[in-house]
Design a protein that fits this description.
Layout (H helix, E strand, L loop, with lengths): L1 H8 L4 H5 L7 H14 L3 H10 L5 H22 L5 H12 L11 H10 L11 H18 L3 E9 L1 H8 L1 H18 L5 E6 L2 E6 L4 H18 L6 E9 L6 H17 L5 E3 L1 E7 L9 E5 L12 E3 L4 E8 L2 E9 L3 E3 L7 E3 L5 E7 L3
Parallel strand pairs: 4-5
Antiparallel strand pairs: 1-3, 1-4, 2-3, 6-9, 7-10, 8-9, 10-11, 10-13, 12-13
Helix pairs in contact: 1-3, 4-5, 4-7, 5-6, 9-10, 10-11
């Protein structure tokens, strides 16, 4: 949790701030708010556990915390001095509420460790699955507001399963830790990295379009290849761009996973992303009333392949977003006549005894 580390660097203790014992500057309060937001459903429970060594539910802890703050204020007013949150907590819960016995105060460093581990993966130190998915949803909302692009990466280690099976899980764990360190060194300060599960890792590149992301991901892939060449581990990456490829977090994950799968099909150690492709058809005499472009990229669905007419160029057009690979397609004219694309030079069997056009999209 970077915000918590920054607080500690500047000499602040989180408990002192949230209890009102310390009045922080605006920028420090912002860091505190981020810690509370990221911790989410267990913040107040962990807070009271730190102060009393007793565990309460989050809902109950939230209520008790407000009562403790009121108790602290009243006692401080009567004594004419601030009694501090620890004294107020123990007095209220032990003497007034009778909820605890023999309380034990947990060191602040352990509390910080508890907060940190609730947001990070204990093996790699990267954000855990819950938090990285929350970061992705937040990135969608933020970039929608800013009208900015960002890219999401789904990364997977090539050769990791074989190494894990033959060398053992301890070696596999060491590799994952090394991978996490390489990712920290290869990404920018504002990039967000989290462990999705197993050897799958999600990356979020804020305010970054696909072209810039290609450069960043290429650096990551090359660095990984160089550092792990002795164990023959490489990295496959599936990349998607918001909002051109998808505009919702679940769809981004689905498409990034699809792109990653295509990277694996191409042998791994590559970056796979969606390529914008424009196909056109022109027929002047007679002018068609309707044209569809159908192929295995849209499961030969005529409705999905419906083309739009451009009056300026007198062409029928369709925009496609395709991963690397070879695709078959045909044009359907006025719902009855099938023809191939005469603008291409590659043709194949359409599977129905006829000929179809071939479209090849390269990986890079």
């Amino acid at each position: 949790m970077d915000e918590l580390e920054e607080l500690e660097k500047q000499g602040y203790r989180l408990i002192d701030i949230v209890s009102g014992d310390v009045q922080p500057k605006k920028e420090i309060q912002y860091l505190v708010d981020k810690v509370v937001e990221k911790k989410g459903s267990n913040f107040y429970s962990d807070l009271l556990y730190n102060l009393t060594s007793e565990r309460f539910s989050e809902d109950k802890s939230r209520v008790l915390w407000q009562e403790i703050l009121r108790h602290k204020y009243l006692i401080s007013e009567r004594l004419g001095r601030n009694i501090g949150i620890r004294v107020a907590t123990l007095d209220y819960l032990e003497n007034l509420k009778k909820l605890i016995k023999a309380p034990m105060i947990i060191p602040e460093t352990q509390f910080a460790r508890t907060l940190k581990f609730s947001t990070t993966d204990p093996l790699t130190g990267l954000l855990n699955r819950r938090v990285i998915l929350e970061e992705l949803a937040e990135a969608v909302q933020e970039h929608e507001t800013k009208k900015m692009k960002f890219c999401m990466l789904m990364m997977d280690l090539d050769g990791f399963k074989k190494l894990n099976d033959t060398q053992g899980h301890q070696i596999g764990d060491l590799i994952l830790q090394e991978v996490a360190q390489i990712l920290r060194e290869s990404t920018r300060e504002n990039d967000i990295i989290g462990r999705y599960g197993g050897d799958e890792i999600i990356g979020i590149l804020p305010d970054t379009d696909k072209d810039e992301s290609k450069s960043i991901t290429s650096r990551i892939r090359q660095h990984m290849e160089e550092e792990l060449k002795e164990v023959k581990i490489t990295l496959s990456i599936g990349m998607v761009e918001y909002p051109s490829d998808a505009d919702a977090d679940e769809e981004l994950i689905s498409l990034a996973d699809e792109a990653l799968y295509r990277a694996k099909l191409f042998g791994g150690n590559v970056i796979s992303y969606f390529h914008p492709i424009m196909l056109t058809y022109r027929q002047d005499d007679p002018q068609p009333k309707e044209v569809s472009c159908v192929g295995n990229f849209n499961r030969w669905n005529t409705k999905q392949g419906k083309m739009g007419y451009d009056g300026n160029t007198c062409e029928w057009k369709i925009s496609l977003n395709l991963l690397a690979g070879q695709y078959k397609y045909k044009f359907l004219i006025d719902g009855s006549k099938w023809i191939v694309d005469t603008e291409v030079t590659e043709y194949g069997d359409d599977g129905f005894g006829g000929k179809c056009s071939l479209l090849t999209v390269k990986m890079e």
